[in-house]
Amino acid sequence: MGSFLLIIIYVSFISLGLPDLLIGSAWPIMHSELAVPLSYAGIITMIIAGCTILSSLSSNYLTNKLGTGLITALSILTTAIALFGFSIAGSFIKLCL
Question: Where are the domains of the chain?
Answer without folding.
Answer: 25-96
